[in-house]
Amino acid sequence: MTVDYDLIIVGGAAVGRYAAARANQLGARVALIEPPSPSSSLVLSLLTQVNQALRQQACLQQWGYQLDGTAKWNWSQTLQWAETLAETQAISIAAPHSLMQLTAAGVEVMRAEGAFCRQPQLGFMVGKRLLRGRNYLLASRVEATIPPIEGLAAIQVATLNSDFRSNFWPTLPRQVLILGSDPRGIELAQVLNRLGTQVTLIVNSEQLLSQEDPEAAFLVQAILEAEGVTVLTQTQVSQVRAIDDQIWVQVGNRAITTEAMVLATKPHLRLACLNLEAAGVKWQPEGIRVNRKLQTTTSRIYACGESLGGYVSAALDQHEADVALHNALFLPTQSVDYSRIPWTLFTDPTLVRIGLTESQARKRYGNDVLVAQQPVQALTTAQLSNDSSGFLKLIASHKGEILGAHAIAPQAQEWIGILALAMQQRLPLKALAQLPQPSPTFAELIQQTAAQLQQQRRREWQRELLETWFNFRRSR
To answer: CATH assignment of 5-143+268-339?
Structure first.
């Protein structure tokens, strides 16, 4: 079969550009088709950096550094900086995975809409041009959907995909209501609150982050509430109305007024324009159906990233892209393995997770599970920075296999990679317990918690040995 490209990537999400760069580095001939306005999360990413900066400012004041006057945040300047950065990344050849950089490297980039066609054989039509590839990769973006709440469709609301440019929020709102359980909504709630906005966060689940370790999720909620965020769980919004310059929200038997509203509800795919049915690809608004090799119901078409549903995470997206690229460009022999990919919630302190939770481990392995937990406040660096909230929980088997880890701690996103590498290389628990860490740092939690687990393992071994010994003595 004669084809134009080794791989045609139907992009829109950031992982599409990552996949194009990786495939090009491998020597494949690649085409990247993006819609005219690809997604961008630069504002949210910038706000997470703002959150860290606010923490550092608080530390400076504790250490005796006095700021002259009253500190104020220029919201419009923040948005302008994000807009400038987005434009720079789009046109700069030095920006990672920019379209100019991809084009210069040899990727054929097309900013246009397109659709699959089946006749006379599988291809992708862009305008009047028919592109044929050996294989295809769907890396489409998701878009926010309006929940079926009375009056909500008539209200101007922001979403987590909004760029919050000056024509939407010209100034930082005094009150913001965030509706939905997307983890990025939690990040936004904390930083907006720290910038002086009164924030209400509403979810319909029993707890925030219902898929995470309950102890970690409850601590995140406690930190938010201690800082002034109103968190309402197991709560349904029944009606929304605009009254003068305010938004009136009916929540159960009470009403809440707010100046602005952000939807953090589960995003949906809108892929009808791609004509996936003609290519034999089955999909729903919640995600595209794939197997563990990331093949869709048409084996020559793969999918990765946001289009699969679930958490929005660059690390997960890139892992999926790497697996899909190997299978599409070589032989379909690799499968996704999410158990060794870290996930991060960029709150302050940061929540990180890799592998199984404690309840998942006990359900899978029964009594063959050891758990150790070390508080952040035991560290010297926590005392120095007065940043002592959080803990690290390590989960391992009696044989020393690391099954999972969960931490809520300052700078946890910087050292979770150590645990990820240990799990990916199947290093035993003993290796972590003997791994020296720089001091004073928060990474010391790893060695301390692993050593605590090792002590538990020794006690188990000693107890079993003594039990065997006394059984032997009694039998004589």
So the answer is: 3.50.50.60
